[in-house]
Specification:
Elements: E1 3-6, E2 12-15, H1 18-38, H2 45-54, H3 61-71, H4 79-102, E3 106-107, E4 110-111, H5 113-117, H6 119-140, H7 143-166, H8 174-199, H9 204-228, H10 234-237, H11 243-246, H12 252-260, H13 263-274, H14 280-292, H15 295-314, H16 321-335
Antiparallel strand pairs: 1-2, 3-4
Helix pairs in contact: 1-3, 1-4, 1-16, 2-6, 3-4, 3-8, 3-16, 4-6, 4-7, 4-8, 6-7, 7-8, 8-9, 9-15, 9-16, 12-14, 12-15, 15-16
Length: 338
């Protein structure tokens, strides 16, 4: 599970989420049982579609963050299990919807649900999972937690619409791009981290610390994903390398390479992204242009910047095994491209 990370002191060590997995193992077993229970339905297709994605090998990083964030403040109830399950259902629903919008064929090395059962089933099962997530939030009985997660659901939907509006638009600015990823990716990381201290009845400052941690971790996570699409592997991404390029997605590496390129290079980007001329040869050329203009390296640099903010957000909190594990998550996410 470890990956190589270059540290400032020159040593090469492995960044791993194993401490987080170990600390949350008992609670995650309960989360997994609840996932299977709540994904069940008398409508046969619902559990088939849901379990196709739920059992496909995702790390379940977001619910583990929720569990660890509650544990680090000494929470001893079981509401965090339902909230962690809600977070995972929200994430799964988003993936089902995303694959339809993006017309994706692969997810985590498997055919997407839409390729097996169709677009309509994928969207409707995603809606079912969202409904189950909100039922569990209500069962917890925390208005603050319900407000955080329901607000995140709204923001995520807004982010998807923003991304749809920016699709194939090479005039998208870096600020507009960050608005998209803050909404579509970072918002759920932020909510997953914040609901832990909320149900543990912590101070406003402690809640703000986890909120900032989650937001900036989410930004770093998405930036790394965007960089990996042009320099990673299918196993790293859980989808085909170059999918963003083929789908005409405007991500930061594209924005930087386009703006830094010559007039002739911008014509290439226009033909590949805006006119739908993205093929394997075009992908190879795109990667070459990104490297020439430092677009991938600068995307990774920005990821490290947000990772640093996430680390600083936790700095004032007491040292606990959970805090240490959450810090390891930052290194793990960024080190995927090291």
């Amino acid at each position: 599970m470890g990956v190589v990370l270059n540290l400032e002191d020159g040593k090469r060590e492995a960044a791993s989420i194993k401490p987080l997995i170990d600390l949350t193992a008992r609670d995650m077993q309960r989360v997994n049982e609840l996932i299977l229970s709540k994904a069940g339905s008398d409508v046969e297709m619902i559990p088939e579609v849901a379990n196709h994605l739920i059992s496909s090998g995702g790390k379940r990083l977001r619910p583990m963050i929720t569990l660890a964030a509650a544990q680090m403040f000494g929470y001893a109830g079981d509401a965090h299990v339902k909230l962690a399950t809600s977070v995972e259902f929200m994430h799964t629903a988003t993936l089902l919807h995303d694959d339809v919008v993006d017309e994706s064929d692969m997810r985590r090395g498997k055919r997407t649900a839409r390729m097996i059962w169709g677009n309509q089933a994928s969207v409707l099962v995603g809606d079912f999972l969202l409904g189950q997530a909100f039922r569990m939030m209500v069962e917890v009985g925390s208005l603050d937690a319900l407000d955080i997660l329901s607000s995140a659901a709204t923001v995520i939907a807004e982010g998807e619409v923003m991304q749809l509006s920016a699709a194939k638009n090479l005039e998208t600015t870096e600020d507009e791009y960050f608005s998209v990823i803050k909404a579509k990716t970072a918002a759920l990381f932020q909510a997953a981290a914040e609901v832990g201290p909320v149900i543990a009845a912590t101070s406003r400052a402690e809640r703000a610390a986890l909120r900032s941690y989650g937001l900036n971790l989410g930004l770093a996570f998405q930036l790394v994903d965007d960089a990996l699409d042009y320099g990673g592997s299918t196993s790293d991404l859980g989808k085909n390398v170059g999918d963003d390029f083929r789908e005409g997605k405007i991500t930061l590496p594209v924005i930087l390479a386009y703006r830094r390129g010559t007039a002739e290079e911008r014509k290439f980007w226009s033909g590949a992204i805006e006119s739908g001329g993205a093929d394997d040869a075009g992908l190879e050329k795109a990667i070459g242009l990104m490297r020439r203009h430092g677009a991938i390296a600068d995307t990774i640099g920005r990821a490290r910047h947000f990772g640093g903010i996430a680390r600083d957000a936790l700095a004032p909190l007491d040292r606990t095994p959970q805090k240490s594990a959450l810090l390891d998550v930052i290194e793990f996410c960024v080190a995927r491209v090291s």
